[in-house]
Each structure stands twice: as C-alpha cells, then as structure tokens.
Task: inverse folding
C-alpha cells in the first residue's frame, strides 16, 4: 500500500517492472564558476537503501538537492521513472526529504505537520486522519498527534520529520544527515530503526552522511564521494574489503596504506619482503599501494609471522587495543588486537594473503571492477 | 545585596514611568470628569455617545484601518523583496532615511506636490485625464499617511522574514506546496509576529493623527485626534478633550490585546 501517489504523472509503462527509478547521466553542477559536481553517473533502483558518503564539501548534499529538485544540473540529465526531470520543481516530484534540521513547522502541532502534504493535495479530512495515524505508528509515535513541536526531544522531532515525509507515500525518501544532531546512543538506535523502516515500506531511501560507520551499517549500496566525484560505489562489504584508492581506503575504516611493487600476478613486494596475495591483472614490476586493515594483523612473538615491527604506541579502545608498530623500512602499521604488547617491544605480525589488497594508481572504477571480476570468479574453482 | 542593587537600578525607570506615563494618564482620566465650567460631572461621557462623536470615532477607526491595510499591502512584498536583495543594508537604509525628516516638513512637501497646478496636477492635465482636486481629499490623507507609515511596517516584517529559516520554505515545497500555498501556510504564519508589530506601529498612531488631517485633508477628515486638538486648543473644553483621549487609549489597549503579546515582548 505504500506505493507512489499517482504513477500516471511520470510513468512510462508499468513502473513496477522497471527496476531503475532515478538515473544520473553525466550530471555536473557549478555555482558561480565553481565546480561542485563533475560527471556524475549512477542508477538508483527501487526499494534499496543507498548512502551518499563523503567528507563535507564533497557534493553529497548537492546530489540530494538535485534529486529533490531544489537545484538544476548545469550539465547532463536526471531521469525519474524514465522521465526527464531536470526542470521539474520540488513540489511536482514524487520524492520527499527529511531535512538535516528537520524543518518541522513550529506553528503547527505534530498532527498538522504530518498532515501538511495531504492537505496540500486536498485530501478529505476523513482520509487524512487515518493516514497521519498510520505514519505516526510507523515511526513509533502513537498518541503524539496533539503535541507541539517545541515540546519534542531531538529523537522525536526526527521521527515526526520522517512521518511527515512518508505519509505522502513517495517513491524515494531523501535523508540529509538526519542523525547528525542526535547523541551516539540514539543515533545507533535510529540507524537500526531507519533500516527496518525502509524494509517495511519497501521504498528507496537515499541517505546522506559523512559517517562511514553509519553508511556501512545501513546501506545496500554506498556511493563514496570526494571533491565532486564518485570515487567508488558498491556494497558496504566490497567497498570495505576492496577500496579502489587511497582516499576510499582511508575514509572507510582504518587502513594501513603502504607503497609496494607488483612482481607478477599474485606476488607483491613491500616492506622489503615478498608476499603471496590474491590480486592480479597488473603489469610486471608495477608500483602499487597495498592496504591491510588493522584488524587483519595478528600479533605473534618476535621472530614469528610475516613481518617484524617495534611497538611505538598503544591505546586501549574498549573492544580492542590499538597499537602502532614500525617496521625496518620505516612504515607505520596500525594493529587492532585483543592482545596487547608493551611499548618498545619487538613483535611479529601475521596476515593471510587474502588480507592484502593491492590498489593500482589512478585506476578508474570501471577498470577496477573489470580487473576484479576477471579473477574473483576464477578463485572459486 | 544583589536584590538591593537591582532595586537601585530600577529607580530612574520607576520615576520615568510614574512622572511621564502614569501621572499624565491619571490626569487625563481626572480631567475627563469635569465640564467646561470646572464642575464634576459625567456629562462628557454622555456627550461622547452622541452621533457627532460616534461618527468621528467610526471615521477615525475607518481611516486608521484603511491606512494600515494599504501600508501592509505595500510593506509586506517590499520587505520580502528586501530579504532577496543583494545590498540589503543599503536598501534598508534608504527606507529608514525618510523617517529622519520631520513629519511636518514631509507634509508641506506633499502640499507642494499635490496642490492645484502642482507637479502631480500638471502631470494629470498633460496625460489627458484632466486636472483633479487631490489635496484636501480623503484620498490624499490616506496616501500621505501610508507614505509616512510604510517604514514602520517594513522594519518588523523584514526582521521576521530575515529570521525565517529557509528550510521551512523548502520543506513546504518538498511536500508539494505551490508558491502561493507555501506563502499562505508557512511563510505568512511564521512572520505573523512581525505583521502584528507592524500593524500596531501603524494603526495606533494612525488613530490619533491630527496634523495631517488639517494640512493634507484640509479638515475634510475629522478624526478623534483632530477633535482632541480642537477641544484643548480652540474651544478650551479640556474635559471633553480628555474624555475623547480616554476612549482613544481604550481603543489602543484593545488593539494591543488583539495583536497578542508580540508588542509587549518587544518592549
């Protein structure tokens, strides 16, 4: 029952058979000569949870505003349900936004805030009431209809903002850093709740955040953005395990990024030693960067393992210890382990060939994906 | 100690309020109970409810409403445009600037502009409409009053529009509202405080205008303000003048109550 308001306005053919709902084709955006977005291409499918992830100023909010209709692209085309929507204003689009500061109307109570879109669409009162109640029920705010906005907590405002958006049964819900104002505990709870809500509603969520943990926890698919460009897109798992470049490896989780040389397929050299790995498709003796996640490094007694380091610092992080070790070549290694070592102690590090991820300098996402596909399938025979 | 200190600070304020607000109001009330011979009576109050004074009251309120209405009609869109301008400070300055010039000077300037064979009259004649009596009409009275009051309406509305968070407007658009629906359901209600302040800043002075009624309206418009002036300066019937003043004050209290707490909060 939570389908689009009226398909006839946009639909080309049966909308439910069409998987793609939003498509960006070579979209660029400039403000006063300054380029905010360059050559953005992606497809958004129905019923999935997407996250636009990146540092502030990377253009993620601009993409959201382009989808909502608050901005018009300087170049390229945006299609919604197969229809060109470059110039369609926000009030004529089947998307709704949950704003960063919620933007709940302070002169209206909870009920009237949620009912706003329905009243604009001139629904009858007897239709509005059950729908508002249903939307409030969806966000666990039964019985809050008559509250004033000023009397709500941050988490409650957040829920009202979501209810106000989903009551219109949009095909796509846009969320602009909606959890950034909440404290850690509430934020974690809302992450779970939002994900559940998206599954129950079955509509597309596009979530904007600069918090990589949030993105990893909630999304079906993540777009990592940097300086107006999509650096990498894919499932949280693939982006975490196989970052395309230094930026992504650094931005998503903690990483050890070490310069190295690809000797031949499945053999890489770094820190003065040669290691087996699973990567291939490089030139012989190609200079590369290798990534090993801190949690993939295992503490061993001195002399054992693949690499010898001296511990320089140690922090207790709660779940694990975080240690920085230096190898003979001067590379720093961050280690996450439940075991600890003393500062100044010499230790060995062990890691599996699968823990080594090799990155090619300046590789495009298409080439990266193609190279990965060429050997990942072959691995399983 | 701190309590004592705050009390000391209050003394100038209390003195001011007592001497220049409460005492004059009490005197107005006191005088309203004496007839022209200086005898205590309720005669003045009875007289106020005779047709002459009632008609004056109705015309006073009517003109004040007209002036307020047209001022608001011009000031709101102006204030809105102002918030969208690039050189807001400059434009705001230009709007405030005329308020620094004495009202009498501006009134005399309008006499020159609107008089027979004046520039406006000549313009009408040249455009083929023909010469019209503009000065000393109800129209010129409302026109000049609106001109004088516009800055006082623009400022509070501009302030509340400035404070309005643009994400409310975006949220309304996002929820499907047209430009008009956004204005009616979000922008206007959220700037209502500014409108109320502006209405008070215009309606109350408009109710007691007296100089303009003579200079611009040529005594064709008789308001309560004019009547008070006549009684105090010409007929010397201070009692009747004070009675009218009492009703004028009552009218102002009613307006302030109707317009809510906005005005009180601001002061």
Result:
């Amino acid at each position: 029952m939570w389908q689009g308001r009226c398909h006839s306005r946009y639909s080309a053919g049966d909308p439910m058979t069409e998987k793609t709902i939003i498509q960006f084709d070579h979209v660029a955006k400039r403000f006063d000569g300054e380029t905010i977005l360059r050559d953005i291409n992606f497809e958004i499918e129905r019923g999935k949870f997407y996250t636009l992830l990146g540092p502030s100023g990377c253009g993620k909010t601009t993409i959201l505003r382009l989808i909502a209709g608050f901005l018009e692209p300087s170049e390229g085309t945006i299609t919604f349900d197969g229809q060109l929507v470059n110039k369609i204003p926000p009030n004529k689009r089947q998307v709704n936004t949950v704003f960063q500061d919620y933007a709940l109307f302070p002169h209206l109570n909870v009920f009237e805030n949620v009912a706003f879109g329905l009243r604009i669409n001139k629904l009858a009162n007897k239709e509005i009431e059950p729908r508002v109640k249903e939307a409030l029920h969806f966000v666990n705010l039964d019985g809050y209809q008559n509250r004033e906005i000023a009397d709500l907590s941050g988490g409650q405002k957040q829920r009202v903002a979501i209810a106000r958006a989903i009551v219109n049964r949009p095909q796509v819900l846009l969320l602009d850093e909606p959890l950034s104002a909440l404290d850690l505990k509430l934020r974690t709870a809302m992450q779970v709740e939002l994900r559940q809500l998206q599954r129950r509603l079955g509509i597309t969520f596009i979530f904007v955040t600069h918090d990589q943990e949030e993105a990893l926890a909630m999304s079906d698919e993540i777009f990592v953005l940097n300086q107006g460009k999509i650096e990498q897109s894919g499932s949280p798992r693939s982006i975490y395990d196989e970052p395309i470049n230094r930026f992504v490896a650094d931005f998503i989780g903690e990483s050890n990024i070490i310069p190295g040389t690809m000797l031949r397929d499945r053999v890489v050299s770094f820190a003065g030693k040669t290691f087996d790995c699973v990567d291939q498709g490089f030139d012989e003796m190609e200079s590369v960067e290798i990534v090993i996640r801190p949690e993939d490094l295992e503490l061993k007694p001195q002399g054992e393992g693949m690499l010898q380091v001296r511990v320089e610092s140690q922090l207790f992080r709660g779940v694990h210890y975080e240690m920085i070790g230096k190898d003979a070549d001067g590379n720093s290694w961050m280690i996450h382990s439940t075991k600890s070592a003393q500062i100044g102690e010499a230790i060995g590090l062990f890691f599996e060939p699968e823990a080594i991820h090799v990155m090619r300098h300046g590789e495009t996402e298409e080439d990266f994906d193609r190279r990965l596909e060429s050997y990942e399938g072959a691995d399983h025979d | 100690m701190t309590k004592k200190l705050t009390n000391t600070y209050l003394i100038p304020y209390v003195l001011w309020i007592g001497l220049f607000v409460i005492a004059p109001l009490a005197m107005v009330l006191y005088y309203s109970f004496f007839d022209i011979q200086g005898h205590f009576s309720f005669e003045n109050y009875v007289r106020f409810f005779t047709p002459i004074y009632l008609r004056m009251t109705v015309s006073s309120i009517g003109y004040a409403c007209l002036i307020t209405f047209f001022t608001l009609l011009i000031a709101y869109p102006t204030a809105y445009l102002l918030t969208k301008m690039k050189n807001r400070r400059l434009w705001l300055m230009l709007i405030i600037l005329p308020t620094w010039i004495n009202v009498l000077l501006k009134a005399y300037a309008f006499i020159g502009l609107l008089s027979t064979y004046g520039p406006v009259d000549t313009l009408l004649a040249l455009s083929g409409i023909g010469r019209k009596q503009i000065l000393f009409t109800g129209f010129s009275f409302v026109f000049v009053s609106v001109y004088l009051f516009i800055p006082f309406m623009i400022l509070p509305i501009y302030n509340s529009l400035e404070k309005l968070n643009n994400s409310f407007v975006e949220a309304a658009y996002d929820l499907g509202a047209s430009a008009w629906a956004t204005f009616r359901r979000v922008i206007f209600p959220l700037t209502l405080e500014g409108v109320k302040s502006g209405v008070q800043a215009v309606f109350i002075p408009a109710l007691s205008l007296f100089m303009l009624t003579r200079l611009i309206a040529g005594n064709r418009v008789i308001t309560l303000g004019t009547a008070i002036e006549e009684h105090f300066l010409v007929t010397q019937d201070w009692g009747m003048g004070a009675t009218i003043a009492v009703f004028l004050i009552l009218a102002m209290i009613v307006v302030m109550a109707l317009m809510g707490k906005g005005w009180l909060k601001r002061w």
About this structure: The longest helix of chain B spans residues 51-84. Residues 53-259 of chain B form a domain with the MetI-like fold fold (CATH 1.10.3720.10).
